[in-house]
Design a protein that fits this description.
heterodimer; A: Rossmann fold; 5-stranded parallel β-sheet; 5 helices; B: 318 residues; Rossmann fold; 12 helices; 5 strands
């Protein structure tokens, strides 16, 4: 990746407000952010774009983010790190991430600043 | 970062939160509402957490847990959930009021000092609970453009609604008390019902059922108490039992309407037949009626529909 190329993050969440807030915060931190509100949008973006990180909400209408993450990883062969992003408690998120065999989780309860910091750590941009 | 996001998204958050609360209150009145209610409260928790509104987030999570237990069949949890949603509603309105007041103050300050000073003030040490955004709702809905106004802090009373600086656990007890505390009657809620019934058991049963639908109510057991509560509580709907010793329903309905600053809906409740109750309602000048034989769910459903149709015309008196 060229030094001046922005890393690409895909966020999937059914809350439009949540997507807009996370997108703005992460773009201010220097990332390119793509958003999806459902599995269809997510699948289209994931096929078309090279991604450095995928953040998945867990509880969406008729959709569990950890199930989607498993499909992305095991069926579609996505290699980008996948993290759950939810306001569930940390213990439950850790358990769901383990069961889905994905990379980890970020807890919404920690707020937007913690989200940005955690993304930087995951992408090794926290120097 | 969080201050900037509050300034950018605060007003929109309030608008969305109001919508989630409104839908949650509607869902409380539906027997199949638990699943969607869980989703609404879960989303509200996540959105408020992102803006550092931890007290709102914690209450929403409490409500979500109650809704999950309601889904499993717990009527007590449903009652707790209704109270939590109503308290959330109040908190959101307090946040909105503070925002409007502070935005007004900021606008006033801006005429006296540079805009930069106002922004600095809003992001200074006293404002961890700031949630701001200066667009009116029509502008937000139409453009969703970045807000250029300075962030406005909540006022001195911010500790009661927005405490992002506090550790989560230290808030929890207070939140749960607010969310689950029984008997709170100082809430100013969207829907208020005055129940007039000389039977405490019957009145409290209806009050509890209304609470599960997210509706606040008070019980008055005689004419004088009814008129006093009517003034103090300002209900939009009065539900009146038909058979109360010493109460002239026609006189009571007239007295209520005379005291009402705005048109009030009056419904009669009785074990009479529908036809007899309809006749009685017309005779005393009530707007509607519902039979106790309909069962508590149908009674609540009917009252909810009356609250949703507040502009109905009174029946003609015979």
């Amino acid at each position: 990746m060229a030094a001046n190329e922005r890393k690409r993050i895909l966020i999937c969440d059914d809350s439009h407000l949540m997507l807009d807030m996370a997108k703005e915060a992460l773009e201010r931190a220097g990332y390119t952010v793509l958003v999806a509100q459902d599995f269809s949008q997510l699948a289209n973006i994931q096929e078309d774009q090279k991604l450095d990180l995928i953040l998945m909400d867990v509880q969406m209408p008729e959709l569990y983010g950890d199930d989607v993450a498993m499909v992305l990883r095991e069926v579609r062969g996505v290699r980008a790190p996948i993290y759950l992003l939810s306001s569930l408690n940390a213990d439950e998120l850790a358990e769901r991430a383990d069961e889905a065999e994905i990379d980890g989780y970020i807890c919404k309860r920690d707020g937007i600043d913690a989200l940005v910091q955690r993304v930087k750590e995951i992408l090794n941009d926290d120097m | 970062m969080i201050d900037e996001l509050r300034a950018r998204f605060g007003a929109r958050f309030l608008e969305i939160a109001r919508g989630r609360i409104r839908r949650s209150l509607e869902l409380m009145g539906r027997s199949d509402g638990a699943d969607q209610l869980i989703t609404e409260l879960h989303s509200l928790a996540g959105e408020s957490s992102m803006l550092g509104l931890e007290q709102v987030a914690e209450m929403a999570r409490n409500g979500e847990e109650d809704a999950k237990q309601w889904k499993q069949g717990s009527t007590t949890a449903k009652l707790y959930c209704a109270r939590t949603v109503r308290t959330l509603s109040q908190r959101i309105e307090e946040l909105a009021s503070s925002l409007e007041e502070e935005a007004g103050a900021s606008a006033g300050n801006a005429t006296d000092s540079a805009a930069g000073n106002a922004t600095d003030s809003a992001t200074s040490t006293e404002e961890p609970g700031s949630i701001a955004g200066g667009q009116d709702s029509s502008q937000r809905a139409a453009t969703d453009a970045p807000d250029s106004r300075p962030a406005a802090p909540l006022g001195d009373n911010s500790a009661s609604h927005s405490l992002p600086g506090r550790p989560l656990r230290s808030e929890q007890a207070g939140d749960q008390e607010a969310a689950h505390g029984a008997g709170r009657r100082d809430l100013v809620l969207e829907h208020r019902v005055l129940i007039i019934d000389d039977s405490r058991l019957s009145g409290e049963h209806l009050s509890e059922a209304l609470a599960t639908a997210g509706i606040d109510s008070r019980l008055a057991m005689n004419r004088d108490a009814a008129l006093a509560e009517f003034v103090a509580f300002a209900p939009q709907l009065v539900v009146c039992d038909v058979h109360m010793p010493g109460v002239d329903l026609h006189e009571l309905c007239s007295a209520l309407r005379r005291q009402a600053p705005e048109p009030v809906t009056i419904a009669l409740l009785s074990g009479m037949s529908d036809a007899e109750l309809a006749r009685r309602a017309r005779a005393v000048g009530a707007d509607s009626h519902v039979s106790k034989h309909a069962g508590i769910d149908q009674i609540v459903s009917h009252l909810v529909s009356l609250l949703g149709e507040r502009h109905i015309e009174p029946c003609e008196q015979s």
